[in-house]
Task: structure prediction
Amino acid sequence: MRAQKGPKGRIAILTGGGDVPGLNPAIRAITYRAIREGFDVVGIRRGWAGLIEVKRDHGTDNSHAVIPLTKDLVESFARTGGTFLHSSRTRPSAVPARDVPEIMKNRYS
Result:
């Protein structure tokens, strides 16, 4: 079996629509499985509002909107209520087209 040179890809986790019980354990479960399958995992802070703020330009600091998720990090929040990623009341369908990042415009209608 050939050793893989890097991650299979990256998975982003976003929580939106408000807090409900079980979000942090769900984030933990997704993160654990994705890491086990060979993926990098990141969390999008502040739900859809955070995703809209992400810039894809090389070298851009997106730490205000994106956080790397590790087993240790998600484990530390697994027994707390709500979502440690936070959410917002941003509705993706209500965001003006001019505010949608270029990378997402082909998926925006």
Notes: The chain is about 30% helix and 10% strand. The first strand starts at residue 10 and ends at 14. Helices lie at 23-36, 47-53, 71-77, 102-105. Residues 30 and 58 are 27 Å apart (CA to CA).
